[in-house]
Automatic annotation (TrEMBL):
Membrane-spanning intervals of the chain: 6-27, 39-60, 72-93, 105-129, 149-170, 182-204, 274-290
Bilayer topology annotation: Multi-pass membrane protein
Protein name, UniProt field: Iron permease
Subcellular location, record wording: Membrane
Keyword annotations from UniProtKB, A to Z: Membrane, Transmembrane, Transmembrane helix
A GO molecular-function annotation: ferrous iron transmembrane transporter activity
UniProt-listed InterPro entries: FTR1/Fip1/EfeU
Organism in which the protein naturally occurs: Paenibacillus albus
UniProt similarity note: Belongs to the oxidase-dependent Fe transporter (OFeT) (TC 9.A.10.1) family.
Main location: membrane
Domain of life: Bacteria
Gene Ontology CC: one annotated term: high-affinity iron permease complex
Length: 336
């Protein structure tokens, strides 16, 4: 869980820092630094609101637990979290000049409207979104124990790392490639999202909400394979394996817990878990490849338009120069 908490906090906190940093930098550049304090007021309020959301969410989760319905809520959290992570990877990872210009335009409109309230609300909302997403993801990776995820060293390390990277981006002398950061973290977030998705499938099959196309002769959900001999997904499974076979697995259950939490590893996946896990990867990478292709086409079109405009400009300059030269030639004067 710590690694998941680190990656999620690192990514979400850095997105918030990046957005707030762009706003502050823009205000300083246009000589409107007097609004900076209101931006920070909005950020502080968003942090408090996010903690409030975490508290309310934890109360709701505990309430479902007392009613014996926690697993059903967990399924929803796992699926929604997987969807949110996928959305973030596909549509919210483009931290580029376009995002910068859009933010600056919004800030310019807010300045035009005037009022500290508008600036507070804007910075509050952009920060709160990241905070609420983090709370939701923490609920998914901690099986509903949000406080455990918040207090983990992974969450703290993620905040520190995001802060240091933010300082490097806005204060450092070296240029940091934001696109590289989002590409690298997106790879790990795809793994986490796939793991959350397949965990939801597994829980639904355990609760018999969905069945399986592949069953044992006894009618139970069958496993595609069994890797307990290699890496059990929990120390209990390791103990049972040693008791039943007299042999030790190659990797112990502690390692299995890590990979189960991080990648959704299952020692004996059902047909649906196996197929949907890899289908998720195929779907995401196809969509990413399509996005990349569209971006390249847009860049090529922009270059062609720029080249055509430049050629037209050169041609116009040539015509103008020829016209001027013709007028300056002797004998080309017009009699009045």
């Amino acid at each position: 869980m710590n690694l998941q908490a680190f990656l999620i906090t690192f990514r979400e906190a850095f997105e918030a820092i990046l957005i707030v940093g762009i706003i502050i930098t823009y205000l300083n550049r246009i000589g409107q630094s007097k609004w900076n304090k209101w931006v920070w007021v909005g950020v502080f309020m968003a942090i408090l609101a996010s903690l409030g959301v975490a508290l309310v969410f934890q109360i709701v989760l505990d309430g479902y637990a007392t009613m014996g319905s926690r697993e059903y809520l967990r399924i929803g959290i796992l699926l929604v979290s997987s969807g949110l992570l996928t959305h973030m990877i596909l549509f919210m990872g483009k931290q580029n000049q376009e995002m910068r210009s859009k933010l600056q335009n919004k800030v310019a409109l807010i300045l035009g409207a005037g009022g500290a309230i508008n600036m507070i609300v804007h910075s509050f909302l952009v920060t709160l979104r990241e905070g609420v997403e983090t709370v939701f993801f923490f609920a998914a990776i901690s099986s509903g124990d949000i406080s455990k995820a918040i207090q983990s060293w992974g969450a703290l390390a993620g905040l520190v790392a995001a802060g240091l990277l933010g300082v490097a981006v806005f204060k450092g002398s070296k240029r940091i490639k934001i696109s590289t950061f989002f590409r690298v973290t997106s790879i790990f977030l795809i793994m986490i999202a796939a793991g959350l998705f397949v965990q939801a499938i597994g829980v639904m099959q355990d609760l018999r909400i969905i069945g399986s196309l592949y069953k044992t002769p006894g009618g139970e959900i069958g496993a595609m394979y069994d890797l307990t001999w290699f890496m059990p997904e929990h120390p209990i499974d390791e103990t049972n394996y040693i008791r039943d076979t007299g042999h030790h697995p190659i990797l112990n259950g502690q390692v299995g817990i890590f990979f189960k939490a991080f990648l959704g590893y299952t020692q004996d996946p059902s047909l649906e878990e196996f197929a949907l896990y890899w289908l998720y990867y195929v779907m995401v990478f196809v969509l990413l490849a399509r996005q990349r292709k569209l971006a390249l086409l847009a860049e090529a079109k922009a270059r062609e338009e720029a080249e055509a405009s430049a050629e037209l400009g050169v041609l116009s300059d040539g015509v103008a120069a020829a016209s001027t030269l013709a007028e300056e030639q002797p004998g080309n004067t017009t009699a009045v």
